Amino acid sequence: MALSLDDVSEAPATTHAPTGRRVQAALVFARGGGTTVLSRQGVPYPFHITRAFRMHPESPDLATLYLQSASGGLYAADHLTLDIAARPGARVHVTTQAGTVVHRGGPEPTRQETRLTIAADALLALNPDPLILFPGAHLAVSTEITAEPGARAIVTESVACHDPLGQGRPFDRLDLGLTIRTLEGRPLVRERGRIDGAAFAGAASPMGPHRAYGTMVVLGAPDDARLAGLTLRQAGDAAGCLTGVSPLPNGAGLGLRLLAPDGGALSAGMDAVFRIVFEALSGCAPGRRRK
Which N-terminal residues, if any, form the signal peptide (predicted)? Predict the structure, then answer.
């Protein structure tokens, strides 16, 4: 039996599961003064944002905002939620400064929830850099999009593996979920996926030799030849990715998937496809984003 210094028996040690952080951030973009403004924000730690930049001289009403992390990534049992609303007439591009590291987890997954609400005649492009899964990471990602008729959106999501020791150690598990619904709550698209890290990196992996994965959904896409499947596939493939394009169920829009050998190739492919789609939906090429 263990004894304390005052000769009083100590209670046996107990192991507690990590509690993680429960944090919710909210951004609301609206039309005001002939441009797009961030009309409301609630950005607690570890979320951080920049001011809205104007990177498109030919479209001064289009705002660009960087979403940042002040904590060095996502940690075990974190549960971070981001709500973004684009009001009628708002035109906004939200991106990140760099990839987000997902650290080793535990029995309870690290959760990242994104909830988007896009009004008619609004454009929201959410294009973060990849989530980087470290060895032992246990991540659950959920994206919910509520769109009115006439809303336009580009929403990307991407993950890559990285072992800082170069030993090829896999992440633990990855869960991905996507829901697209109407303003009345009628679901148009529901998608769920799960894969263990050992299967992801194994010889019989459904990813084949690829170790990075990205998706893009496009809502409110115009009838534009630039959005033809062949054009988008060629753009992604030219960057070293394996790219697939297909219509989403219930006429919701377009869905794209990209596989790449690593995070660098994935970022290049996602960026090449994003530039084409962004220009088709916004009427201007995406501004040069310094990172």
Answer: none
